[in-house]
Amino acid sequence: MAVYTDVQDDALRAFLLDYDVGGLLAFRGIAEGVENSNYALRTEAGDFILTLYERRVDPGELPWFLGLMEHLAARGLPCPLPVKARDGQALRELAGRPAAVCTFLSGVWPRRVRPEHCAPLGEALARLHLAGEGFAATRPNALGPAGWPPLLDRCRAEGDAVQPGLVAELDGALAAILRDWPAPGALPEGHIHADLFPDNVFFLPGPDGKPRVSGLIDFYFACTDLLAYDLAVCLNAWCFEPDGRTFNVTRAHALLSAYGALRPLSGTERAALPVLCRGAALRFLLTRLHDWTETPAGALVTRKDPLEYLRKLRFFARAEGGADIGL
Ligand SMILES: Nc1ncnc2c1ncn2[C@@H]1O[C@H](COP(=O)(O)OP(=O)(O)O)[C@@H](O)[C@H]1O
Ligand SMILES: N[C@@H](CCOP(=O)(O)O)C(=O)O
């Protein structure tokens, strides 16, 4: 479910009068997604996505996200381009919420990841990092290492009800990750997506029939951080079998090789990748755990399993070297 705010058709028609997109032909709410309300629009000018920004997005940060997408799209990355109204503004208001219209991207996200998805993914991620250069404004990662201890504290009271002993295990894992984390300035930084899960990457078959990336969406966790951390997020999200236990080295190797062909990893980045993977596993474990225990009964949101990421964290803690994670 991701339509929290209802939009009436007369309000939408009036809203669109400020844009050069012609008349509204059809619209429907999109059930997928977690954070915001999304509608698919068809107007006389084509297809668009309307997003109404909900609870967890800070309205003050929206110009940064929209500015980054505009910068990346202008450099040829297949990401949504915010559409400006006639007053030159992409960020407007509808139904009492901050709202933006973006271009619609074709394609389908992979319900079942195959190694053939991972090379185009790695290439797209490297292109994203390279295209982000030159976007001057920065946004710190609120869900980076400094954010993990307070997040764990918020899960302390309820965590052991999810799995006995969980809080103590996470205390130990967090301490080890913070101890091993790269020192400031040690690794290259830039703008990262920070949530490039399969449901945020669209594919279409290329002329050879193999999957080609046709769209990267959902930039609302994007921030300025270690570039290699984005790879760690992808290794977590794309390279395990669905049970979260079995790591697929073939997928990881395809992802890392394709990335490295466009943006070669330094020796320091390669050495840091295992701890970045542990950090990324902990980050998604903590946000899922927090949502698991805090989501009110009856809320129309599908909670995601935090323990899937405990299994991934344990895998990366056991991994003995780069070869175990596809380097
Ligand atoms: N630019 C786009 N083009 C096509 N579909 C989109 C676009 N943006 C969002 N969507 C659709 O909306 C769904 C939810 O979008 P997403 O940004 O992941 O929402 P949320 O931020 O709420 O998690 C996606 O799975 C996709 O179906
Ligand atoms: N990818 C995160 C959840 C964020 O949801 P999204 O729909 O905004 O990508 C997770 O799996 O925990």
From TrEMBL:
The keyword Transcription regulation does not apply. GO terms for molecular function: kinase activity. Pathway: Amino-acid biosynthesis; L-threonine biosynthesis; L-threonine from L-aspartate: step 4/5. Keywords: Amino-acid biosynthesis, ATP-binding, Kinase, Nucleotide-binding, Threonine biosynthesis, Transferase. PANTHER family: AMINOGLYCOSIDE PHOSPHOTRANSFERASE DOMAIN-CONTAINING PROTEIN, AMINOGLYCOSIDE PHOSPHOTRANSFERASE DOMAIN-CONTAINING PROTEIN-RELATED. Signal peptide: none annotated. InterPro entries: Aminoglycoside_PTrfase, Homoserine_kinase_II, Kinase-like_dom_sf, Pseudomonas-type_ThrB. This is Homoserine kinase. Residues 27-265 form the Aminoglycoside phosphotransferase domain. It catalyses: L-homoserine + ATP = O-phospho-L-homoserine + ADP + H(+). Belongs to the pseudomonas-type ThrB family. Pfam families: APH. Its EC number is 2.7.1.39.
